[in-house]
Amino acid sequence: MEIAGRVVQKIFNKSPATISGNKSYSENKQSHAGASF
Q1: Alpha-carbon span 25 to 29, nearest angstrom
Q2: Residues 1-37: tens digit of each pLDDT
Q3: Which residue ranges does the record annotate as region Disordered (predicted)?
Q4: Are 12 and 30 in contact (CB under 8 A)?
Q5: How far apart are the first and last CA of the chain?
Q6: How many Å apart are CA 20 and CA 34, to the nearest integer?
Q7: DSSP states of 1-37 as a string?
Q8: Alpha carbons 21 and 1: distance in angstroms, whole number
Q9: Partner of 21 for a Cys bridge, out of 10, 15, 17, 32, CB 3.0 to 4.6 A?
């Protein structure tokens, strides 16, 4: 999960979005990352 979290953070740094948008996107992205990992 640590690695997936770091990958998500890198994606955030490249794509600008609101904090609330990042939170929902993070939850969605992490569930996908967990499945792929």
Answers
A1: 6
A2: 578 778 877 766 665 555 555 566 666 666 655 555 4
A3: 17-37
A4: no
A5: 9
A6: 21
A7: -HHHHHHHHHHHHHS---HHHHHHHHHHHHHHHHHH-
A8: 21
A9: 17
With beta carbons less than 8 A apart as the criterion, state whether 30 and 8 touch.
Answer: yes
What pLDDT does 37 receive?
Answer: 47
Cα–Cα distance for residue pair 14/37, rounded to 1 Å? 22
| Tokens describing residue 37 | 């990992």
pTM, full prediction? 0.27
